Amino acid sequence: xxxxxxxxxxxxxxxxxxxxxxxERRSKDARPSSTAVGGHPIVLAAGxxxxxxxxxxxxxxxxxxxxxxxxxxxxxxxxxxxxxxLQLMTPYTLxxxxxxxxxxxxxxxxxxxxxxxxxxxxxxxxxxxxxxxATFGQGTGEMVAIDLATGQQLWxxxxxxxxxxxxxxASDLVFTTTLTGxxxxxxxxxxxxxxxxxxxxxxxxxxxxSGGTLxxxxxxxxxxxxxxxxxxxxxxxx
Length: 238
Prior knowledge:
mainly beta, 4-stranded antiparallel sheet, 1 helix, about 5% helix
């Protein structure tokens, strides 16, 4: 990945070898974003491999790398395959799967990055099977808070369904939405779920906040009775 910083191009990484399972499974899914810690800028990236990376934007040096979500021992399969040392007992299940890990945008505030994580495995019947099988309705997720200075996980809260609404920070809360249409507000302090609401349809849209209004897109009808709508919530209302 190249990031243009004025007249100079800085190369970040590489942080992982070519991917055995999917061209999309590494660190490009959640858009890279820049923030700062103690006045020093950093660049964040994450992806379906289930890792969050922090880079020094002036040199491209990896500052830290933190695993998020469920991992079940397949993180080095890519390198082992390149070295001719990979041995797989089939059938097998891969966490995070091809549609798991960090699928949507993170949010950073006050020295902490909030990461929505999809815990969705892929199952393979043979070692040569290129695309695994996943059951999206059975997937779960997490919201994870990471210290930007150290990469240390501060808390992780389990979510009953797949979070596809990114992370959006407002005051002392971080919001996300799930595939099944739940809007969830978590305490930034400890990750406790303080409020939920159910949308008229499923959601895979990042939330937006304007003034005291939270806008949630329910654009993913999951059955014939659902339809796409946008719902507005008043922040701070009882």
